[in-house]
Amino acid sequence: MRSESYEFFKNLMATTSPSGFEAPGQKVWCDYARQFADEVTTDAYGNAVAVVNPDGDPKVVFDGHADELGMMVKYIDDKGFLYVQKIGGVDPALVRGKRVDVHTNQGPVRGVTGATAIHLQSRDDKDKKVPKWPELFIDIGAADGDDARRRVQVGNTVTFTDGFEMLSEHVGVARAFDNRVGTWCAIEALRLAAEHRDELQCAVYACSSVMEEVGGAGAAMNAANLKPDAAVVVDVTHATDSPGVDMKEHGEVKMGHGPTLSVGRENHPALNALIASVADKADIPIQYEAFGIAGGTNALSYYSKEGGIPCSVLGLPNRYMHTTVEMIDLRDMQRIADLLAAVARRIEKGQRFAVPV
């Protein structure tokens, strides 16, 4: 990976971006995009869009979502403890005993999610495996409720402090690879495509969309604003090559073996065929997986809009999704960027994607 691209990735991962509060991360993304994009814009809710060759035809979108999971302060009791609600699909079983940052206008306030010592738990408490959200609390070391309310307020967002680090030459861990890795792939593909502007026939849009984890509204806004002729959505997908995952139920996806190309439902067969052909010619390994039935991506926000926008989903294999120790192979991430850039160069002037009948 290019050193400048890696530094951008680290900066992106270090910047908090919970759903609905993505602006700090979007600024990092836009600052990077302005170095090579023909135009960079944002909309009312903070979706960020960069384009190369805007007069080209067709309009092709590469989309990743900028938001990460988090929590929000819901109640502060008179003892100074904070009670929270989740932002997105946070697993309550993984919340206790973590360091967190409460994000205020004056800067982050460090706290911990309370975890009562096992010695002090009743037998009933020990038998409970998953706490309920009203049982989870954050301790910021406040003297009392008034002290806590001077430092934080209801509506402040909360993120875990676990940062990005490499475990080996290629494998990294972090909270919330889901899905800033997708926004990295989209804009890195745009940068690579921009190196061959003279060859591009299509207009290439990279989108860093907001609020996927809470319903996918950002991508729906991009569909309405851009009216693309095709969209390739990049998101993480479940790597199923770790203990405890039943491949008969969830399919076989291996970390480090290339991105996945989803098949069925929103995934358009003609666009999929183009991507597969480009990957084969460029010697980029891809894995195949059936469309997700336990979740979705921003493709669900694109494909039914504007009378039908042909979509494909490229998945980056990710172990331990929606935890603070998500794990990816950065070679898979680079492969997606390379593949998208090659797809952009392959698309012909005026090309459209339709199912032959």
Automatic annotation (TrEMBL):
Keyword terms of this UniProt record: Aminopeptidase, Hydrolase, Metal-binding, Protease
Cross-referenced SUPFAM superfamilies: Aminopeptidase/glucanase lid domain, Zn-dependent exopeptidases
Please give the Pfam families that the UniProt record associates with this protein.
Answer: Peptidase_M42
Write down the superkingdom of origin.
Answer: Bacteria
Specify the signal sequence span.
Answer: none
Which Gene3D superfamilies does its entry note?
Peptidase M42, domain 2, Zn peptidases
Does the record carry Protease as a key word?
yes
Family under the similarity heading: Belongs to the peptidase M42 family.
- The protein in question is named M20/M25/M40 family metallo-hydrolase
Give the originating organism: Natronomicrosphaera hydrolytica
